[in-house]
Amino acid sequence: MQYHIKKNRIKPKRLLFSKSIPLLKQLSVLRIFLFLCFPFFILAQAKPPPTGPQLPKRINVKKITPNSFNARALDSLSVNDSDADISITDYLTVSQARDTVHVDTTLTIAKYYKFNTQRRDNFAYLSLNNSGQALNPLSLEVWHKETAPAVGFKAKESQRFLPHQFGYYHVPTPLSELFFKTTQSQGQSTDLLITANIHPRLNYAIGYRGHRSLGKYQHQMSGRSQLRFSTRYENPNGRYRLRLQIMNQKISQQENGGLNEASIENFESGEDEFFDRERLEVNFENANNNFIGKRYVLEQDYLLLRSNDSFMKPRLRLGYRMQSDIQDNRFSQDQAYSGYGDLAANLTKPYDHVYYSLRQFDAYTILSSPTIGWFSGHIRHHKYSYKEEEQLVNPSINEDAYSVGGEWRKRFGSLDFRASAEIGISGDRIGNYVFGEIKQPLFSSFKLTAGLRWQQQHPGFVYEQFTSSYADYQWKNTPEMEQRTAIFAQLSHPHFGKLSLTTTNINNYAYYLQPDPASLAVTPMQLTRGINLLQLDLEMGVKWGVFHMDMKLRGQQLSDNKEVMPMPNFIGRTALYYEDHWFENALFLNLGVSARYFSSYKMLAYHPLLSAFVVQPHQKMEGYPIVNAFFNMKIRQTRLFFVFEHVNANRKAANYYSAPGYPYRDMLFRFGLVWNFFQ
User: What share of the chain is helix, strand, coil (3-state, %, to 5)?
Assistant: First the structure.
């Protein structure tokens, strides 16, 4: 596969190990080196390995067989050695927050919804036409638990590999996973993961996600190359632990500005000659949007207090974590587009280059005991920088800040309690968050979950300061912190589904506004009044023998200021499908149709220059259903997917859009697979 990505033009002075690094930065590099060498000093203190059952040195895996003939049951591994029975539950994925789940090779309707380039369920999003392009949100997006200011360019988040999506692994035998899916008009989407335990206490994982799709319209090719690596280690006595992750990703997106007015009329006319979408003219064919990201996390901790009787004495760990996130965003055109206005003085063609770096250094402690439960506290040093490389008008922003935070988990009888918080203690742009949640089993397998989220966050550096090559896209603001307060509750049952209610109050909401329908110029705005949002979700499934129905419904209502936060009042999705074993249980399949719908509203407009979705209060877009037909099957560890997307698309009366000027895709056949290898 080929990815047409421009050469990385990050200046040498920005590289981490440049010869021109000042003395203080060299000392920082030395500090990193010493921490990397730390485990070798710890090994001298190792105790003999604990006695007890150990994994055999050589395991001959025959095959994976399901524990039962129910497709939703867990898979298992059988081995020749009678002393070592390995189950699928022994193959573990560990999140950055140390939450652990086992590898899942089942075929369910949830796996069908996640069969996309993002590998996630995009229920509340609408994809632009080409595979791999940005996703238009249909609901309020949930903030991550992050207090440092972000750069902006929020539309790129759906294309990036985000930190919370990164995982560590622990596997008794080598494990590989291959994801493949066709795209549109030349290209494919792949995701390959290989992980193995070199030693029961040392694991590595390496993954690569590649994507290329030419698209059906002019100048909309989407390309992506994302390489990731992680490793985790624990010394023989379990006192010392190390985790490391490295991510390098490049994203290239051709931008066309959407269809022009004449092409919109031709698209909706239903004339046969325009069924070839390349005949439709776009606003421009000379823009490229490139992103380069580099990220690493190094984390180490050591157990100071330890007792063989862990139920009587507390356990105390001290640790250190270093994180670095570097982002390089570039928008370029061969010549200016008149719809964006005039170029700034002394410029001949548009070229916007934004550089952002965030480095965080944490010192933390973890305390666990039967009395207090599990508690972690940390102090964090933030060091962030924002610079517009090609502009000399506005200076770069460099700031050091500090925050403190912690997390507490405790079980009180049948009630589970979890809370976390981080509060900024210095720095003008550091936010705050507080989160609390309880889970309580009720009668007849019902469970109640309720909680509170309160968060303050900076709107982003691009919102605060931006100097584009276009004169109308230059501003410098002093924004207030956005604030959200959400109260949520969920009632769930294994058979009856979930009912969720969330009420959110939003203050100082920041957004981009396109005030003039005759112009594409936008203005950064911040609302001084509050917004109240009420959301009600219902998820349920019904089964009649081998026939199933799954649905998810969301109603959402804004109390006021609807014009600045447009969203449909209703989003719905349902699937009717057949599910059974065939050929003496050698093949498991599900086939059927899925449909989703959203009500009409003033859809957000996509703006390539800002890589953001902006508010346009001029055009109300009609809601429409999207019906897919699918045939999915599983043979051993291989899951195959065959999908006819948007089978109800009527090209004779086309009126389906992902954003103003950006049509949703026509009927399209796509197929792919997810294949797990257990060695």
Answer: 10, 50, 40
DSSP string, 5-54: -PPP---GGGSTT-TT--HHHHHHHHHHHHHHHHHHHHGGGPPPPPPS--
- The DSSP bridge partners found for residue 380 are 362, 403
Domain boundaries along the sequence of the chain:
12-41+91-678
Size of the chain, expressed as the number of residues it contains: 679
Q: How confident is the model at residue 489 (pLDDT cuts 50, 70, 90)?
A: very high
Cβ count near 163 (within 10 Å): 15
Select from 383, 488, 472 the least CA-distant residue to 426. 383
Give the number of other Cβ atoms within 10 Å of residue 41's Cβ: 10
Choice among 12-16, 603-607, 612-616 with the minimum mean pLDDT: 12-16
- Residue whose entry in the numeric block shows the structure tokens 């692994």: 169
Strands 531-544 and 497-507: antiparallel
**Residue showing tokens 């976390």:** 420
Bridge partners of 155, per DSSP, are: none
CB 571 within 8 A of CB 139: yes
Question: Minimal CA–CA distance to 54: which of 88, 87, 77, 83?
Answer: 83
User: Which residues, 6 or more positions from 152, have their beta carbon under 8 angstroms from its beta carbon?
Assistant: 459, 460, 461, 462, 463, 610, 611, 612
What was the pLDDT predicted at 516? 86
Which among 132, 185, 139 has a CA at the least distance from the CA of 161? 132
Closest by CA to 267, choosing from 569, 658, 596, 632, is 658
With helix as H, strand as E and coil as C, how does 338-398 read? HHHCCECCCCCCCEEEEEEEEEEEEEEEEEEECCCEEEEEEEEEEEEEEEECCCCCCCCEE
Query: By the 8 A CB rule, do 197 and 186 touch?
Result: no
| Torsion angles phi and psi, residue 160, rounded to 5 | -80, 160
| pLDDT tens digits for range 375-422 | 999 999 999 999 998 776 778 999 999 999 999 999 999 999 999 999
Nearest in space to 122 (alpha carbons), one of 541, 673, 603, 626: 626
Q: Which two tokens stand for residue 294?
A: 């580099």
Predicted local confidence at residue 23, as pLDDT: 39
Query: Which H or E run includes 640?
Result: strand 638-645
- pTM > 0.70: yes or no: yes
Closest Cα to residue 227, out of 294, 132, 321, 182?
294
Q: C-alpha distances in angstroms, 603 versus 351, 623, 654?
A: 28, 10, 17
Q: What is the pLDDT of residue 85?
A: 78
> Phi and psi (nearest 5°) for 264?
-65, -40
Q: What is the CATH number of domain 12-41+91-678?
A: 2.40.170.20
**CA 438 – CA 426 distance, rounded (Å):** 31
| First-residue to last-residue Cα distance in the chain | 27
Contact 466, 474 (CB under 8 A): yes
